[in-house]
Hints:
Radius of gyration: 18 Å
Distance between the termini: 13 Å
Largest sheet: 2 strands, antiparallel
Amino acid sequence: MKFICPKCNKETKIEVVMIDCTVTETIEYNDNGDLEYGTPEIHESVNSHYQCKNCGWKLPIEPNQVDDDVLLEWLHDQPQNSEWILG
């Protein structure tokens, strides 16, 4: 499926903006004594909204906290995805 942003008119990716996050990250020292940060891990969060990765336009849907079906349904209803069928 494609996402073409109605604001910037570009085919781009969708970001989910999360709030109230609990995130951890491992910190180690390298041989020079400098800190090296690991990959952050999200343990808890609340999905606030979806937005265009290019321009930040907020999609007109509210995220479901359990799954992303609402996003898939919205994408399916967009004209550029008329040939896609939800399974």
